[in-house]
Amino acid sequence: MGLKSKAREHGMQAHRSVASTPDSIEFMAIGDAGTDVFLRLFDVEVLEGPDGGSRLLVLPFGGKVPFEPAETVPAGGNAANAAVCSARLGLSTALLSVVGDDDVGRSLCASLASAGVDVRFVQVEEGLPTNRNFVLWHGEDRTILVHHQPYAYRLLPPLGRDAPRWCYLSSVGEHALAYHDELAGYLEAHPDVQLAFSPGTFQLAVGVARLARLYRRTQVLCCNREEAASISGVSSGAIAELAVALHGLGPTTVIITDGPAGAYASDGERLLFSPALPDPVPPLDRTGAGDAFSATCVAALARGRDLADALAFGAINAASVVHSLGSQAGLLDAKELERRFELGLAAPARPLDRRAGAEAGLGAP
Fold it and tell me: How far is CA 42 from CA 59, 138, 222, 325, 352, in A?
């Protein structure tokens, strides 16, 4: 088992034509990637969870469950979704990830390259397969069966030369803990590189203390309301308290999504609320909506847009994604995103009183 650093050993030499030139990477997504296989389920139940907030997908144990193959996304996962989103918005974009030495990995890289993503930093690990995720799709929502291969992440030497303007770190497997230390060291040695952090399941589970260097170095932290409570330790769930606590860990800007209720953002001075777009047509599939929102916000900030505008852009792109099957088919390009923004499809983000926290259903501060 070992890593190959030469793209041509994985059939990626042909992808060099779409790669960014050195020193031009605006957005480098970092994290696990894999193929997403969508399976549409019919004869299943969805029940309310014991906590009253979650839902449970119920399958007959020991029986057979019919499904319909619906879609295969060759290059899925949080980091790949963010990379495709950024590239479609016109930023020079790269992905730093690991795949297996197999046809699935080759297809993944080819798909990313065709979307305009630089794949020079996708490492190939011999002896392990490429990640495959199975999306159990029922109604407008889904449950995803995820397995992260124990890849040995490492920073490739070209990363230091290319010096991306922004790194966007998202979900990686539990075997890559030491890689977070290496990345923190790289960021500390390159203060001009901005970090956006959208922590995944393992990164949330390992805890803030273990990843304190990364949180301190984060310019934009993206998470949902439940994750914000877990990261910050604030049990009340009040947005104002969550924002203050998250800033205390280091992030300059905090973006907190709240599902259909909308999203909140704080830059340490302003606390903003951005309502979700009205949905006259029921969503088809919510997979990738969170990735689209977060990556679009970061891309807008990277291009110098105001935080309020970034929230509006994120809401518009996320609303587009949920009306297509899969995490990438509905992503908008920059021209269409700007057109919808100018039409006022997203309500302007409005400031909230950080102390009172009374608007938009906020709890006591």
Answer: 11, 7, 33, 16, 43
